[in-house]
Design a protein that fits this description.
about 300 residues, alpha/beta, Spore Coat Polysaccharide Biosynthesis Protein SpsA, Chain A, 2 domains, seven-stranded mixed β-sheet, 15 strands
């Protein structure tokens, strides 16, 4: 039995459900703990009665330290601040659990992650992190960090010193800007392999953890999960793929298409219980407009048979 934890608010519910669908298909024995960032998503998930899921209601778990910084950060920054707390809340909820894996809600499993767990066990360490593995032409490690907060394993005892240090840093500073070698919750990971050299293992096979920024570098067929960073739902029939990286046709057909099918099913599931899908792309900033132009030039996405129109 593996325990996983993710977090999201009601806006991100479709992605969270797509993640859960992929886990049901690919992971034999698991519990997915969901830290519900708002009470609305907590209430909806109770109605959905998902198998292999346990809910954590943030409004009943927020510490005084979290509440103190909450008013100083926007919603995205606060969610990043919560990331190191997510494994802690699971460990506190069930004393029998010895290992928790944090997942970003826009991850999607293509295979069982057993190979990743086996690699951690073989390393003899207590924390696993993943390298962004940027394709050279898209390397953003200087501003976004060498390692990605997307899939992170922590053991209860050996990993606690790392998790606790990260928690303290995120309480001190966690903002959506690059400042003094920091960016959100993510660049704190950059020195972990040296700071916590006896505890932290970096996933050796980068081909197992794919995303838009490295899909041109590695063959997609070996990947265990794909990170759909930037993808946004506009309405129940329209999705902004949110990627300014060129994606070849086999990747569109074999990764994006089945994910969008899962996303569509999740949206229908939410509609069935009477909830209206939220627009995840609420406003268009200048940066967003530039990103769209670049995407049209470099990406040239075509619609694929997924039930969505793509932009």
């Amino acid at each position: 039995m593996e325990n996983f934890v993710t977090l999201f608010d009601v806006f991100f519910l479709p992605q969270g459900l797509a993640l859960h669908r992929s886990m049901v298909r690919n992971i034999k024995d698991f519990t997915l703990w969901i830290l519900c960032v708002d009470d609305q998503v907590y209430d909806l998930l109770i109605k959905l009665k998902l198998n292999n899921v346990r809910l954590l209601q943030l409004s009943k778990l927020e510490t005084p330290e979290l509440l103190a910084v909450k008013v100083t950060r926007n919603k995205g920054e606060y969610c990043w601040t919560l990331t190191p707390f997510a494994p802690r809340f699971v460990f506190e909820a069930d004393q029998s659990i010895n290992r928790v894996t944090y997942l970003d809600a826009d991850l999607w499993f293509r295979q069982s992650p057993i190979e990743i767990f086996n690699e951690l066990i073989s390393s003899g360490k207590d924390v696993l992190i993943t390298d962004h593995g940027y394709a050279p032409e898209y390397d953003q490690s200087a501003t976004s960090g060498q390692y990605c907060v997307q899939f992170m394993i922590f053991t209860r005892i050996g990993g606690e010193c790392v998790r606790k240090w990260w928690e303290e840093r995120c309480l001190e500073w966690c903002f959506a800007r690059h400042e003094g070698g920091k960016f959100g919750d993510q660049m704190y990971l950059d020195d972990w392999p040296t700071r916590f050299k006896d505890a932290v293992h970096v996933l050796g096979n980068q081909e197992l953890a794919l995303a838009p920024w490295n899909i041109s570098r590695y063959p997609y067929n070996k990947s265990i999960f794909f990170h759909f960073q930037g993808l946004k739902i506009v309405n129940e029939n329209l999705v902004d793929l949110g990627a300014m990286y060129p994606i070849i046709k086999p990747v569109k057909e074999n990764i994006y298409k089945p994910y969008l099918v899962d996303l569509k099913k999740s949206i229908m599931e939410i509609k069935f219980i009477g909830f209206e899908i939220k627009n995840q792309r609420c406003s268009v900033t200048r940066a967003e407009a530039i990103r769209r132009i670049l995407r049209k030039i470099f990406n040239k996405f075509k619609n694929i048979d997924s039930g969505f129109e793509l932009i």
